[in-house]
Design goal:
Length: 800
């Protein structure tokens, strides 16, 4: 009997093993079947002639066609084959349709997005699109669906989710643009809410002190350093009295990370004119975003007859965004351009004044109006659908109710279908910086700092996108628009846009901080600027270079000097001069283990940074306690403020702004040091082992990695320690950083540089899944232009 049981068990185990192996082979065969086609011939409907796709050793394609529409079809084909799952997420997220793919767990996120009704906005924008742009969008959608259908199996993510990919629609490209609006501007409503809470609960001088943008680091191209308001006196705001009413001792003021810094993603770009360059005017750009697998951008070069001189070809090279048929940043051979998020103010919260006679109406200049009510239904895969009402006003959707029960609507450029209908391919056709300045004005994109250069050696800067004309208010805090005194009076005309052309210094720089001052800055508004330290470091480096080369520009992008923390380190060295015990050990480490850079092996950098994070959080939390007392959801980190006011306070050390649980500012500083020591030595860890690289280790992950047992981790990039920090041009955190690095001089593209953090393909079995990661990690230059072809795919019209 025992022998039979053993024999049966062995047979059963062998059968299970065979089934597992067979299942693995079958699963692998399905996954392999979804690899992109890189050679041979494939067909796309409505092509007017063959399109040639040459891929180089990194999988970067050169797409050559006889019309712009055919090239859009070719780009769509490649995007679908290499990145369709990424595209699907990017259209579903703003539309509030993730639940249809991943199930009920996304229902809450979808409901939050459905308030904006972006699917409807995209549909109307497509209907209003300029005819030439509509042709490109339609052609691109044809290419996407041809590429998807040509795969031998759906992309592997759909096998994991047990879902079927849905065809691409032309309006999905506009949803992809709206996904970027949400990424780059989605926090602006929270920013304005937070300012409103401070204004409502603090004396005006204290509100201005905490809300004034920037610090001593500000380095605009036009204008001088910011002049911060003075610290309000004890007669205006005394934290000791606030302590008694707001109970600040109950507010959490410690933790390992600072949400303010997590929200500062950061981007850099600059332009150098021909007089300060070896080979003509030059643009450098590194857009810092959340970094995942695959990376957001897709490198490409597109070649087609020049619309101005059809006898010659135009070549567009740079990065594209899967889901969109145009070049995002790069060069067209005449002009090169790069983007950074502007930090300007592109949305407003409007306090709704209810009609006292009818709660279903609200007050406007034209009299009471009824809310428009839309029933939104979210369909969840594997779960019940959900229908809920969404209310809209003449300004936009109702998005928030404050702690006092007041409701607010949001007016946002992203809600304007007419603005989104503009042809985002316009920059491709520019021949000079003047052409490009006109092309990006009113463009249907999230508002960006655009740095540019042309083959004549000129450089320029402006804001790309649509800029509202505000009347009656500055947009910093929510206001009532019921009487029409506060409003948007349409948008600026192209001639009214802020701009800088050929500045005397021959250099332009942007880093999410103010680029200009005065009237131009007021026109742009204040929607959450980053601190000016990165701009300062970039400016200083550029001014030391008289004949710039691409390698020089890459070195500026890789700058990781710890200038920002130097003064905080000095404070600690001074305050800890006579310390003993663990404090003395802390001081020794920041004195001796300080490299002067945000380098992975630096213990000193880690300790100073952790101290600054904690100290700033404690001070800002106590100063904003009145707002938190009224609204428990208030979070000062939404203000993107800290360095300016806290350093000012630390420098002057006013007793009336010191948390009453401390007798002196020295005691507050030492207590913060003790807390950092306690956090970093918890569990018996040695303070000497807590390097910056340990905290700043890459977490570049595939969105489904956590859902796949055993093998999911292999979808991610390696977890390497990262140099740099958010307060250096090489701005990196574990999950954010430079999503590309580009350096190019128009007309000299062969000398340019382009890096991305993963690879061209989103397919884990592709050789181009992560083959560009290492060069990006160490800052090794890779060519801007695609190299020699190693494979050729012909895209052809269907046989007649």
């Amino acid at each position: 009997m025992l022998k039979r049981i053993v024999k049966f068990s062995l047979i059963l185990l062998a059968t299970i093993a065979v089934l597992i192996v067979a299942g693995g082979i079958y699963a692998r065969s399905l996954v392999r079947a979804s690899l992109p086609q890189v050679d041979g011939t494939a067909t796309i409907a409505n092509l007017t002639a063959n399109v040639r796709v040459d891929r180089d050793a990194l999988g970067v394609p050169t797409i050559t066609g006889t019309t712009r529409e055919d090239v859009a079809r070719g780009l769509g084909f490649l995007h679908a084959q290499d990145r369709f799952f990424q595209m699907d997420l990017q259209r579903r997220q703003p539309a509030g349709e993730l639940s249809g793919l991943v199930g009920p767990r996304a229902m809450e996120v979808d409901q939050e997005m459905r308030v904006h009704r972006f699917r409807d906005v995209a549909h109307r924008a497509l209907e209003h699109a300029e005819p030439a742009y509509r042709k490109i969008l339609d052609a691109y959608a044809e290419g996407v669906n041809a590429g998807l259908n040509a795969l031998g199996a759906p992309p592997f993510e759909y096998l994991v989710l047990r879902a079927t990919p849905e065809p691409w629609q032309a309006e999905d490209s506009i949803l992809t643009v709206l996904a970027m609006f949400n990424t780059l501007q989605g926090r602006q409503a929270l920013f304005e809410q937070s300012h409103g809470a401070l204004r409502d609960t603090l004396p005006e001088p204290m509100f201005r002190f905490l809300s004034t943008a920037g610090s001593e680091w500000e380095t605009p191209v036009i204008g001088g350093a910011i002049v911060r308001p003075p610290i309000p006196g004890a007669d205006v705001f005394d934290i000791r009295r606030v302590h008694q009413t707001a109970k600040i001792q109950d507010l959490k003021t410690s933790g390992p990370q600072d949400l303010e810094e997590q929200s500062i993603i950061g981007s850099n770009n600059w332009a150098v004119d021909a007089a300060h360059s070896e080979s003509g005017a030059m643009v450098a750009n590194d857009m810092h975003l959340s970094i995942g697998v695959p990376i957001i951008w897709y490198r490409a070069s597109m070649v087609f007859p020049d619309p101005v001189e059809p006898s010659t070809n135009q070549r567009l090279t740079g990065v594209t965004l899967p889901g969109i048929p145009s070049l995002v940043v790069g060069s067209n051979g005449h002009v090169a351009w790069g983007f950074t998020n502007s930090g300007g103010d592109w949305s407003d919260l409007i306090r709704i004044e209810p009609d006292p006679r009818d709660p279903k109406k609200y007050l406007t200049l034209e009299g009471p109006k009824a809310f428009a009510v839309f029933d939104e239904t979210i369909a969840a895969k594997g779960g019940p659908s959900k229908t809920f009402p969404v209310r809209w006003t003449i300004w936009g959707p109702v998005v928030w109710k404050d702690a006092r029960g007041r409701e607010y609507a949001q007016q946002w450029i992203a809600h304007d279908a007419n603005a989104l209908a503009s042809d985002v391919a316009r920059p491709e056709r520019a021949r000079t910086v003047e052409d490009l300045l006109a092309a990006v004005a009113g463009l249907g994109i999230p508002n960006q700092n655009v740095a540019m250069a042309d083959t004549a050696g000129h450089i320029a800067w402006t804001i790309g996108g649509t800029i509202p004309k505000r009347v009656g208010h500055d947009g910093m805090t929510p206001e009532s628009w019921a009487d029409g005194q506060n409003r948007w009076d349409g948008y600026l005309a192209a001639a009214e846009y802020p701009r800088i052309v050929n500045p005397p210094a021959g250099r332009i720089w942007t880093a999410n901080a103010p680029v200009v001052d005065g009237a131009m800055l007021a026109t742009i508004g204040e929607g959450g600027y980053a601190d000016g330290i990165r701009a300062r470091l970039i400016r200083d480096n550029l001014m030391r270079i008289n004949e710039a080369t691409p390698a020089d520009m890459l070195n500026v992008q890789l700058e990781d000097r710890a200038l920002f923390l130097e003064r905080w380190r000095k404070v600690l060295l001074d305050e800890l001069a006579s310390s003993t015990g663990q404090r003395a050990g802390f001081r020794t480490l920041i004195e001796e283990k300080w490299t002067g850079r945000a380098s992975p092996g630096s213990v000193g950098y880690r300790l100073v940074k952790e101290f600054r994070l904690l100290f700033v959080r404690r001070v800002m939390t106590s100063l904003t306690a009145p707002a938190r007392a009224v609204d428990p959801d208030f979070d000062y980190t939404r203000l993107l403020r800290g360095e300016g006011p806290v350093w000012q306070i630390l420098s002057e050390r006013p007793a009336h702004l010191l948390d009453p649980k401390y007798k002196t500012w020295n005691e507050a500083i030492l207590d913060a040091v003790d807390e950092v020591i306690a956090q970093l030595t918890a569990g018996g860890r040695s303070l000497a082992d807590r390097t910056w690289g340990e905290a700043n280790t890459a977490e570049i992950r595939h969105p489904l990695a956590g859902a796949i047992p055993f093998f999911g981790r292999y979808l991610n990039m390696p977890g390497d320690p990262l140099p740099g920090d958010v307060y250096t041009p090489r701005a990196s955190t574990p999950r954010t950083g430079p999503s590309e690095r580009m350096v190019v001089s128009p007309g000299h593209e062969g000398d340019g540089i382009m890096e991305i953090p993963t690879g061209q393909s989103g397919h884990p079995l592709s050789p181009h899944y992560g083959d560009q990661y290492h060069a990006w990690l160490i800052g090794e230059p890779t060519p801007f232009l695609p190299g020699p072809a190693v494979s050729t795919l012909t895209l052809a019209p269907p046989p007649k």
